[in-house]
């Protein structure tokens, strides 16, 4: 199953955002504040995912919204050059699926 494929828990997509971040981190040249902000966004996403699982909702729509919000937070933190690198990495991962 690929990084961007849906599954019943949405685990791949949440893990995908963390995976992309970890893969990109060295080349993004993030400031300490940027690292902190991105880590916070990813931690919040992880906690929301845990809550969804605990509640037994399995509500894909809510999880999709949470992932979208985490991506938006990350994009707000990155500068234009970093955003470009991020988008290029995401595209290359999608193409390798």
What do you see in this structure?
With 97 residues, the chain is mainly α. The protein has one domain. Helix content is 78%, strand content 0%. The protein has 4 helices and no strands. Helix 1 packs antiparallel against helix 2 and helix 2 runs antiparallel to helix 3. It starts with 10 loop residues before the first helix and ends with a helix.
Radius of gyration: 14 Å
Query: How much helicity do the residues have?
Result: over 70%
Task: Quickly count the helices.
Answer: 4
Mean pLDDT: 81
Question: What's the β-strand tally?
Answer: 0
Describe the structure using short key phrases.
single chain; about 100 residues; mainly alpha; 4 helices; about 80% helix; about 0% strand; globular; disordered N terminus
Brief rundown of the structure:
With 97 residues, the protein is mainly α. It contains 4 helices and no strands.
Write the layout of secondary structure elements.
Layout: H1 11-28, H2 32-55, H3 60-77, H4 80-95
Helix pairs in contact: 1-2, 1-4, 2-3
């Amino acid at each position: 199953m690929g990084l961007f494929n849906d599954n019943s828990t949405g685990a791949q997509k949440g893990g995908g955002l963390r995976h992309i971040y970890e893969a990109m981190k060295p080349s993004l040249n993030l400031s300490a504040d940027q690292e902190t902000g991105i880590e916070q966004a990813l931690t919040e996403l992880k906690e929301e995912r845990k809550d969804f699982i605990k509640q037994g909702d399995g509500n894909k729509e809510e999880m999709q919204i949470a992932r979208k919000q985490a991506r938006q937070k990350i994009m707000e933190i990155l500068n234009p050059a970093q955003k470009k690198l991020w988008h290029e990495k995401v595209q290359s991962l999608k193409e390798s699926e």
